[in-house]
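Weekly puzzle thread! Below is a chain. First person to post its structure in token form gets bragging rights.
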Amino acid sequence: MTALMVLAIAVGIGASMTTLTVMRLLSGDPLPGRSQEIYYAQIDVNPQSKGKEPPDVLDFRTAVDLWNARQADQQTLVAGSKAKVRPADSPLPPQMLSLRATTADFFSMFNVPFQFGQAWNPSDDTDRARVAVISSSLNEKLFGGANSVGKILRIANSDVRIVGVLAEWRPAPLFYAVRGGRFSGGDTSAFYNQPDKVFTPFFTGLEINGENFKPFNCWAKRDALESLERAPCTWVGLWLRLDSPSKVAAYKRFLDNTAAQLKDQGRVTYAENTRLRTLMEWLDFNLVVPSDVKLQTVLAFAFLAICLVNVVALLLAKFLRHSREIGLRRALGATRAAIFLQCLAEAGFIGLLGGVLGLFLTLLGLYLVRHQPVPYVDLAYLDLPMFLMTFALSMVVSLLAGVIPALRATLIQPAVQLNQL
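Winning reply:
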């Protein structure tokens, strides 16, 4: 009977801790210590929005105008595409890799670590310098992990010089690329993709790979030969760093005033429809945690509740089976409190054993998660807080399960039990 209780607790703990660990990793802060200063700006540039939620990204002209205004402590433009990449002196065929066109502040704003070299200079943004920063994984793949600063990459049909190589960097989710979550129907696992392989100055990226940048949304038919920079489409994100509430309020006023000016120019219809969300508010708005992970977590804890009910029943049966021993102890002077504590101690010991077995089942569950075809599998590891929580949850579950049977045991009448001896 004790083995059954240990197994019931372990299975319940293993299922719930596996899903809770994944849930915690996917819903955490991707930029701890800095996220409270990071904001995402939106203006409703879509004349057909009917004044509802503004587009998730800006059109090129509005985004660049806001970036040029330099009203925040730091600001960066972001737009993504796929690009053909290979070393300039390599005979190997090019690979299609993710390219992020951004500006120099991107790296310091987001605390991006470097293994070799550094970010490009702010003047490289406006000069459209042919430079790039690459990820550590791409550096390992193309250059065997050696310092590749100064080497030349061919991106599309242009050569760019590598000025920096990132150290291991794995924000989860990939917050700077999050957009359109509310249209995904809960399938947001792509938000947990690996960081981009290549970063280039924003305008440089558009020059060398412009045809591969895609619009997020267009409110009018786009001419096939028309540049995306002049098209009636949204596709550029604008991130800001504002380090005080007064600067946040000032930037919101600037954003509203800019929208009002754009309305006077006929470029915006709903000038009052602006947003300035913090990074975490932006992630919440985009519902970044996949709906299937939320559902699995609910089901796992429902399963744990069922296991708890079964443990209560087994503990009741166990303590009732020892009614005569309890009656004898009561007759020898044991108090109800002593009997209650003894029963809880037994329940706690069972919980401890269940926690140990549950830990192995949790590790097994995370191992299976890591073999699923989803982008966040590399994040599924048990860290120290969740390791400790496994035992804490097991003890809490077992003690809760032991309360009712322990109370029931204290109500055993000694005289009745002694008469049966």
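Puzzle host: Confirmed. Bonus trivia for everyone else. Residues 79 and 236 are 5 Å apart (CA to CA).
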